[in-house]
Amino acid sequence: MRGATGGVQRKVQDVFPNAHYVHCYAHQFNLVMQQATSHIPQINHFFSDMGDLLLFFTKSSKRTAVFDEMVAHRLPSASSTRWNFNSRAVNTVYEHKDDLVRCFQTIRNGETFDGPTKREAGGYVRMLEDEAFCFFLALFHKIMPHVDILYNQLQKRNIDSVYIAGIIQTFIDHMQAIRKAVPNLVEDEEYKGPVQEPPTKKRRTLGEDTQHRLALEVCDTIMSHAKERFSFTKHLVSATLLKGDLFQQHRTKFPHSALEDTVEAYPSLDKVRLKTELSEENEEFKSCSGALALYQVLMENNLQDTLTETVSLLNILITTPMTTSESERCFSTLNRIKTFLRNTMAQDWLNALAMLSIEKKLTRDIPDFNTRVIEKFANQKDRRAKFLYK
């Protein structure tokens, strides 16, 4: 779809030149984290080891039985494309690390397990007690909650470029705060792993200087990739006109370059009139946090005929799709509904089941929905099974 020469965006732009393509920002955030973590070899190895640890218990029912007995929590799966899965994995391993160590030690010392399983369990014990692994686990335990929050926000239906610019800046500010707190994290004894007896053979471990450097590099890489990926293209630079406290920042310096780029991308807008409208001062406008909120205020006060260019600009901002997660979930729903055993399902039946699954929130709000459906189904004709009980 993204093909600039033969994809869907090219075919649409051949007919509508001003129909600008926007890549899903939820997908772009996955690319930010994937590129940021793969850029540093030590971090790449950390997440690779984390994924192997999570898969260890899924390969055998005997391992799962020991895990369920000693760890009262299920291990989530890891994913290289959906970083909210990695967030759950990091938080779970961090919170249940001691239980996991005891679980692996039980498997290693158990008589019912074979040699390869014991050796693998022993390797995971050493990994969970490794100083570098404990440090990276603590570091990403601080980073991942902000990743998870941003990932969920980028999948909302009613988001626009103004909203995305705000939450991305908040995310970068949080990363900057974590970066400033790195020296305290390096010096904290809690994150250095358990104190062990000195080994007979000298083993190479990360020093505090290396930990400090890698932690700073992680934060800097995530912030730089986020700024690069989430820098709005020319046709969305108009979001800067509405960012923050609306109109108030323009009293000292109006963003002329953003206005020029906006009018160039959308020739239907009147530059002089748009600048005049955006220069107006109104306390109610200043309280609006985004394009959709401002648009609702203008509609409620019947100002669409007065601020025509502003309304046109808002229409562009709030109708430009920022995410494709919702539509992709619809295809995932179809995969769950039309399985191999239901391959002969008719189109009307498929449409009805898909609508029920996709809009399940609406069906839950209907009083006695399941009971009414059963009654209607039972009353259509005589059936061998009794669905109605009186």
TrEMBL record:
Residue ranges of domain HAT C-terminal dimerisation in the record: 312-361
A matching Pfam family: Dimer_Tnp_hAT
PANTHER family on file: OS05G0311600 PROTEIN (PTHR45749:SF37), PTHR45749
Protein's name according to its UniProt entry: HAT C-terminal dimerisation domain-containing protein
Source species taxonomy: Eukaryota, Metazoa, Chordata, Craniata, Vertebrata
